TrEMBL record:
Residues 304-356 form the HAMP domain. It comes from the Bacteria. Residues 561-599 form a coiled coil. This is HAMP domain-containing protein. It comes from Pantoea ananas (Erwinia uredovora). The chain crosses the membrane at residues 12-35.
Length: 638
């Protein structure tokens, strides 16, 4: 019981740490067990991989040995040798693994068979080399080339030796064919056929041996010697091939045993792998089940040590949530949950004190908010009166601004008219000056016209004299000058009329000059008068400009006053709105105080709770605004 009590009083972190430590310890044990099993499985898998590699390498060695037998290519036997070396390396690599008694025995058997296979391979290589040497000696016979030489030498041979020479050539080529057949398939039947051919060419050789002084004699002797040695070479090659085949068969049998031994070892390793897996499954399963049971026990115990005090704390919290603050909450636990229960008890006591104080405070706030609302209502009323007065003042200022603005506009308009009149008077003065100049020009032109008329009058007088002289001369001429006299008379009449017209024009021009002189004098007087008018209009324009500037200054000043009144009106309205909002806030505060009072009424506290002192809210003295006088309110007398 003492140990259980100590465990119960442990901190939650220590409890969780202890529980997790036990679970982790069990997990470590399971992991170690699983690791050991997995190592065994991994080692067996590695041994099995080596065994499979040995099977593949052996198959590679056997394949290349077979290819060498059929092709006699040295590269295949070299590959076979490399595969054999790899087999010994793989066999040596198996020694680094641990083996059971049965596995060690199988491995020893495999080593012996592998050594036997290596010995059989060495014997096969020796017999193969012997057969290869015998075959190379057979290739040195050259019977086919000798047959061709015999065939080509018949052209220069005597007539009595042509027939035996042809027969010997045919037999030699036939023997070369049987040699090739024997090389392709060495057997006794082919060897017998070669021997028959060898015996058949003896008469031809004897018949041709006596041929002298011919190149064919050496060829015939060579054929006889090659045929004699060929039988021995073929017999030797046949024995080498049989020895090689026997060594190959023994090597094949050894390879079969080696393959079977490696296969048995692979099956044994597969059985061991399955055995290791089953053992690992049972061991890991049992350890896992024990770990699960231990974890469930730890979880159940830790859950009870946490949930039971949590339920007690939750029950106390629910009573507090329901407003029941009358119970006392205590506990004897010293862990976090005990501290939580103690904190809930302290919270219960604090809430009990707070609710009592809140109730008293709510009553004081409700009374204070009522008085604030009444003061705000009175302030709102006075602010509205002030706002109405400001609105009336702003309306009067607006009318005054409109009047001053209209005066300023009229002054500007009059100034513009005076400026235009000044400009027009200036242009009139300029026009009068132009008229004076024009009248002067007319006077000068009239003088020139008078001079021209004087000249015309002189010409008419001279013409009249000439016409008179012409008439005198025509009278002297008598009848011949009568027509000339008539013409002279007409010319004289014209000259007299021209003189008369010139005198009339001169009189008119004199009269015109007199009038032009009078007009020039009048125009000069008008010019002086226009200059006076221009000066007067300029002065009027300057005065109207000053009036317009003064009106603009008045307009700007009154506009600023009106703007200030507008801003004052806006500020007053904002103050009124703020007062209304403050009044509404005070009313809302009063309502919220009542709601808060209803809310805290849910909590039940002992009747002997502490009370807060009542707060006294001072009531401000209200001052009513004095009404405006008639002179202050009448802005139109400005």
């Amino acid at each position: 019981m003492n140990i259980i009590r100590k465990v119960t009083d442990l901190k939650i972190g220590a409890k969780l740490g202890l529980g997790f430590t036990l679970v982790i310890l069990a997990s470590v044990i399971i992991s170690a067990l699983a690791f050991r099993c997995f190592l065994s499985i991994q080692e067996n898998s590695a041994k099995r991989d080596v065994t499979v590699q040995m099977l593949d390498t052996l198959a590679k060695a056997r394949l290349n040995r077979t290819l060498f037998q059929y092709t006699r290519d040295k590269k295949f036997i070299e590959i076979n040798g490399e595969a054999m070396n790899q087999l010994f390396v793989l066999r040596t690599s198996l020694n680094k693994y641990s083996w059971s008694a049965e596995g060690g025995e199988r491995l020893s058997v495999l080593s012996g068979i592998l050594t036997q296979y290596q010995e059989k391979r060495q014997a096969f290589l020796e017999s193969s080399d012997s057969a290869a040497r015998a075959l190379s000696e057979i290739h040195t016979l050259g019977l086919a080339s000798l047959g061709e030489k015999l065939a080509t030498g018949q052209a220069s041979a005597p007539a009595d030796v042509v027939a035996p020479l042809l027969s010997l050539s045919f037999r030699t080529e036939q023997a070369a064919f049987f040699v090739q057949e024997f090389i392709r398939k060495p057997d006794a039947s082919t060897l017998d056929k070669f021997s028959e051919v060898r015996d058949a060419i003896a008469p031809q050789v004897n018949q041709l041996r006596g041929v002298s002084g011919s190149a064919l004699a050496a060829v015939v002797a060579d054929v006889e010697q090659k045929m004699a040695s060929g039988s021995a070479l073929l017999n030797n090659y046949l024995l080498s091939v049989r020895t090689e085949k026997q060594a190959s068969d023994e090597m094949t049998a050894a390879a079969g045993k080696l393959n079977q031994s490696i296969t048995d070892l692979a099956f044994f390793q597969s059985e061991m792998a399955e055995k290791y897996i089953q053992t690992a499954l049972w061991q890991i399963g049992f350890a896992t089940l024990a770990c699960i049971v231990l974890s469930l026990l730890i979880a159940w115990r830790m859950t009870r040590s946490i949930t039971v005090p949590l339920r007690e704390t939750l029950s106390s919290a629910q009573r507090i949530a329901e407003g029941d603050l009358t119970s006392d909450i205590t506990t004897s636990r010293t862990d976090e949950l005990g501290e939580l229960m103690t904190a809930v008890g302290a919270m219960n006591q604090s809430l009990r004190d707070i609710i009592s104080r809140v109730r008293d405070g709510v009553n004081n706030v409700a009374r204070a908010s009522s008085e604030i609302a009444a003061g705000n209502t009175d302030l709102s009323s006075r602010t509205e009166q002030q706002s109405a007065a400001v609105v009336e003042t702003a309306a009067s200022m607006e009318e005054l601004t409109s009047t001053v603005k209209q005066n300023a506009e009229n002054a500007h308009h009059a100034s513009q008219l005076a400026t235009e009149a000044s400009h027009n008077a200036s242009r009139g003065g300029e026009i009068i000056s132009d008229v004076i100049n024009t009248m002067g020009g007319i006077s000068q032109s009239s003088g020139k016209i008078g001079e021209i008329i004087s000249v015309i009058n002189g010409i008419a007088f001279q013409t009249n004299i000439l016409a008179l002289n012409a008439a005198v001369e025509a009278a002297r001429a008598g009848e011949q000058g009568r027509g000339f006299a008539v013409v002279a008379g007409e010319v004289r009449n014209l000259a007299q009329r021209s003189s008369l017209a010139a005198k009339e024009i001169e009189a008119l021009i004199s009269e015109s000059l007199s009038r032009v002189s009078n007009g020039t004098e009048l125009v000069n007087r008008a010019g002086v008068t226009m200059e006076d008018i221009v000066k007067s209009v300029t002065q009027v324009r300057d005065i109207m400009g000053e009036i317009a500037a003064a009106s603009d200054e008045q307009n700007r000043g009154i506009t600023q006053i009106a703007q200030a009144m507008t801003e004052m009106d806006t500020t007053t309205q904002q103050n009124a709105a703020l007062v209304e909002e403050s009044s509404a806030a005070a009313s809302s505060l009063e309502d919220q105080a009542h709601e808060l009072e209803k809310t805290v009424a849910v909590f039940r506290v002992p009747a002997s709770g502490p009370l807060m002192p009542e707060v006294k809210v001072p009531t401000p003295a209200l001052k009513h605004p004095s009404p405006l006088s008639a002179s202050e309110a009448n802005w139109e007398t400005f």
